[in-house]
Amino acid sequence: MEPVSVVCVTALAGVSDFVRNAFGERVLTRANEAAMLDIEAIEDQNCFIPHLTVTSFVDAISKLSGEEPFNDDPNVRGRLGLRAGTTMQAWAGTLMEPFVIGSLWGNLSDNNQATLTSTGTTFRFQDNLQDVWGEVSAGVNFFNVSQTTSVFAKVDTTFGNDITGVGGKVGMRVAW
Q1: Rg of the chain's alpha carbons, rounded to an integer?
Q2: Are residues 16 and 28 in contact, defined by beta-carbon separation less than 8 angstroms?
Q3: How far apart are CA 61 and CA 19, in angstroms?
Q4: Which of 15, 93, 128, 149 is paired with 43 by a 20 to 30 Å CA distance?
Q5: How far is CA 42 from CA 24, 33, 53, 141, 148, in A?
Q6: Taking the CA of residue 55 as centre, how many other CA atoms within 13 Å lie in the half-sphere pointing to its CB?
Q7: Contact present, 138 and 155 (Cβ < 8 Å)
Q8: pLDDT tens digits, residue range 141-155?
């Protein structure tokens, strides 16, 4: 599971009003469209949104207001991992593939940042990505060679200096 950088929506309180007053309703509407989320509608909620959503919102404001856009460098990550598993018969006609995966992830890019300034008020958005983190996963696939479906389950745990997390996936694959 890849870590996702998030921003608490309460950090954005007042940003929509600021954009509307500084650049107009049209810029705010187009920025919300670029972010694919109406930031103003959730400002008073207790939730988190992906950092990429905030970055898209701020980048759109920058471009629409005639300001110089911030750096559009890609965020590059690298991964070195090892998967070990086996295939065995679970019951008549059904194969089971248990596996474990160990991965070392690394951020190969600089931190992302954007600054929005108007009428003396400055909003600065920045993430400080962790440079290296690890991930350990375990899972199992069940399938029947003569059928077109399979089911799977996977659990991931992520760890690092300032990151910990557990996630999981359960699903079904269909081939046609």
Answers
A1: 22
A2: yes
A3: 8
A4: 128
A5: 20, 14, 13, 39, 42
A6: 16
A7: yes
A8: 998 877 888 999 999
